[in-house]
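Students often ask why we bother encoding 3D structure as a string. The short answer is that it lets us treat folding as translation between two languages. Here is a chain of 495 residues written in the first language.
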Amino acid sequence: MKKAISFIFGVLLLSVSCLSSCSSDKDKLAHLHDEQGLAGLRVATSTGSCYDIELSKRDDIQLLLFNSDADQLQALLSGQADVLVQDETVFNSEIRKEYGIQIAFKGEQAFPTALAFRKDEPDLVQAMNAVLATMKEDGTLKQLKDFWLTEEYLDNRLFRHIPVETTGDNPLRVACVVNLAPISFVVGKEWYGLEVDLARALSSYLHRPLEFKLYDMSGIMALKNGLADLLIGGMFVTPERQMQFLFAEPYHNFHPAYYIRNPEVKATSTAGFWEKIGKSLRRNLVEENRWQYITGGLLETLKITFFSILLGSVLGMGVCALSRSRRKWMRGVAGFYSWFMSSIPILVLLLILFYVVFVGSGLSPATVAIIAFSLDFAAGAGEIYSTSLSAIPHGQTEAGLALGFTRLQTFFHIVLPQALKRGLPLFQGQCISLLKGTSIVGYIAIQDLTRAGDLIRSRTFDPFVPLLIVTLIYFLLAWLIILLLKLVTPKKQVL
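And here it is in the second language, the structure alphabet:
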């Protein structure tokens, strides 16, 4: 009885302590006016950003790092984080109103922001500086900043451009680090934003056409390896980055904003469940024709998956033949290849092939992705083939030869059908693993199905619907792979 009373008392004491802690955090947030007030709070920001570097120096906060702004916002809304630190322009007034967040305060530190170039391209930097000087002198830069940074672009929904009519065979390749208004964002197949307009002004000055690709943070590697001529996406000028790149003159000084949930905003919507679902689907798919991201991404995923399975299956036959060879060194080559491919993460292999092995080769990102996944698939497929063939008793071959079949006829009519049936479940799993693995190809600027969902989330900040749509499509694709493999598997029974 005493133990029960002690346990209940302990639970009550813990509950009171938790409530007191929550109340204390709410009081802190209500009076949060400067960075000193962050002590004891859970602070979310972007991995590898300047805010990450600055906040990681503090040991009086719990720093939470995320790879996307949508994930940071969801952490704040779900209560996993107390404060979100991002650029002052990331969450505009519409987003703040819709999701019930507010800016508690803006940091005093200013971060100069500029377009980045390779160290071996000083002429491009000089050209960009000349463009900026002209734009400052004639007032064009101020007009652009007033349009994009004061949210004028939200009022009229006119994502206007600096006109560019340049065509040619020497494009100015732009690597985009972020897909985020008002810095650089894509609508359909067209790029907009403040830094996009600056790149367009440079394009007009140099009489070179523009070519945009979204790399996320791997855009830094794309620039270093010569896959891009300049880098945009709100790059802060820091001493560390100046050691790697050349920067044009800063066009603006940005300040960090500290976002918190707005306690005055309460859920007052009376819309029904299906009405909310319909509104969310319209926002994520219909507005700005965002469904095109899904269809385009689906086609890329299907293309990479199909050709990788096809090429990987053929290469796997070679691996299988080597592993079953009578020559020891051939078996050693097959074993080493399978061990190596199973030991290295497919993402690392993809990045090495794209940014190191095939850099400057002219191969498209999709082709490099197919090569990477084919090499990885071949190792697993080769082992499946070898295991399935070894499982067939040697007596089956002897029986076929005794009946007058040639060795080739015996293999294709007796051994192979049985091996296919034994290896089908493993081969199905290998194919589905490849399908799921293609979700990483966005690291090399391929807009696949997963990247399509990320593009939608970066515009709507909806944490649920884009991911749900992508999940359902992957589920259907996996089911179709199983169905197709069953259809092509021989049905003949072998005695």
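Translate back mentally: The longest helix spans residues 291-323. Keep this in mind for the problem set.
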